[in-house]
Amino acid sequence: MKTVLSLSVAMVCAGALCFAEQVPALPNFNEVTPVNDGYFSTPEESDFWVTSLAPGDVDGDGDLDLAVLGYSVVYNVSAEEALLVLRNDGLGQDGRWQFSSQPLPLGELYSGGSDLAWGDYDGDGDHDLLVGSEGLTQLYRNDAGLLIDSGLPFPGYVEDSSYSGAYDLRSITWADADNDGDLDVFLPTTEGDAFPAFDSVLMRNDGSNGLGGWLFTEVRTGFDVGVSVQTRWIDDDNDGDLDLMVANVDPYYETAYVRRYRNDLDGFVGSELLPVEIQHGLADWGDINADGMTDILVAGNVRDPDGNYSTVIRTHTAQLGGGYAQATVPAPPVPWLDIHAASWADFDSDGDVDLLATGSYVGDSEIVGRSLIYANDGGGAMTALDIELPAPQSSIGSGGAFTWFDLDGDGDLDYLVAGGYPVPNGNGLIETKIQLFRNDTATTNAAPSAVLSPLALVDADSVLMSWQMAEDDHTAAIALTYDLELRRADGTPLTSARLPQPGELGTQRAWRVLDLPVGSYDWRVIAVDSAWHAGQAVGGRFTIAAPGQLFADGFE
Fold it and tell me: Strands, E, within 398-494: which ranges?
């Protein structure tokens, strides 16, 4: 679909920087799905079912690749499980995107209720891959672009997402939960004695064991059980550590909740975040009105405290005095039958987060899948645009995927969705597709500026790193988020790769890391705008001195 746009331009200045501000453009997404590659599209007699998918730069070449778990079916002949990396090879001569496949050893893994999560657990500058599926959890170490089974033991990951319409929606998440400078990982549903729900566990990263292996310690206290869970980390209470939002989606067992787990460093304290039960759908943190405060999105079929059910998209805007202001996003002219997934995403790179929702509605003769873009007016009010993107009818009980990422490295967000589609004139038959749409919306999005005045203050075995806010051509300075990277000064380069997401520290501009071993460290911080476009990294080096050493700044 092509859209001809007429843009007006105004000059806007922020401090010493002046930018050309464009009137928000209408969306223009063009399909660049590979043809007959065996994964994105398949021959008539076969399908490739995606159960989980995660973008990440596995080979460090600056573009985003895809990790995919699923299975290939040749009907009436064979079925084969598959875990693979689809390496991003750029635009082909046919106008479609090209990927080369790298199969990974499955071991005992097989596809089902599953999730994939990238994170640099060993601090060597590249993203490692954690795979959880059907009672098993496996960590693949990234060695110069090659993923190798680490052999490390983890609790088995399980989830009850077999119902039609359940999408792969970020369950397993990496974060530095204890402020010690390395990534821990939260497994929200693991095997245990809590059936029909499942135990949640934080795997604390305790570093190298000195023998070539790695240590993770189970932390199970403070977390509630779950069934099918989405998670998100952010410093919601601005106290200098990452808190955890957990949305337990449960259509069957009446265990659904949306809770925040306040991080007190020595433990987590859970409390109700919203008094709703999500039967199908999701909840997520974001900043809808670019004020630097944490707002909440809820989308899907929800049960309210009065016992009534509704299929809705709601925003909950954080208030200065505490609490949230709830607003229901207006329904489209043909209302939703189901909402399978929704995501904050600044598709037009104008500095505020928009929404994209995917689900289904009742067409003239059958149930039809669709994705709708809801544009943000800048103050948090969302309006559905009169443009639909193709989307699956549903996941058909086989996972499916839905994600935004910058496929072509041009600073805006492109769109991928996977699931089951009705076969044209197929009398109810379903085929699978992975559809990929490049964002050609006529906007420009410069990266944020570098942060100013980076400073590291060492106190015994801890360090407080701080900086002044960056600036951006569209995203308000107060709404910019930040990534912080810290590594031993041992010659390992700080990575330029980052995942397609907001900055891991949110809007914080100071961060303390505790219990660091003696030695020198390199650190840097990067500003990230609302379209997840990252700026230049700046930072420095500091030294943690041995007890009794005179200086701890590396300049003695």
Answer: 401-405, 414-422, 430-439, 452-459, 462-468, 481-488
pLDDT in tens, 111-131: 888 899 999 999 988 999 999
What does the radius of gyration of the chain's CA atoms come to, in whole angstroms? 23
Structure tokens belonging to residue 254: 């009446």
DSSP secondary structure of 357-377: EEEEEE-SSSEEEEEEEEEE-
DSSP code of 479? G
Q: How far apart are CA 275 and CA 295, in angstroms?
A: 15
| In 304-423, beta strands by DSSP E | 309-318, 324-328, 338-345, 354-362, 367-376, 382-389, 401-405, 414-422
Work out the end-to-end distance of the chain between its first and last CA atoms, rounded to an integer number of angstroms.
63
Residue with tokens 């566990």: 201
pLDDT at 161 over 70: no
Q: Can you say how many angstroms the Cα of residue 473 is from the centroid of all Cα atoms in its chain?
A: 24
- Using a pLDDT cut of 70, give the percent of the chain over it: 89
d(CA 29, CA 120): 32
Quote the tokens at residue 241.
């550590």
User: Collapsing DSSP states into helix, strand and coil, what is residue 231?
Assistant: strand
Residue 83 CA to residue 395 CA, distance in Å, equals: 18
What residue has token string 């100013």? Answer: 452
pTM for the model stands at 0.91
Cis peptide upstream of residue 196 (ω within 30 degrees of 0): yes
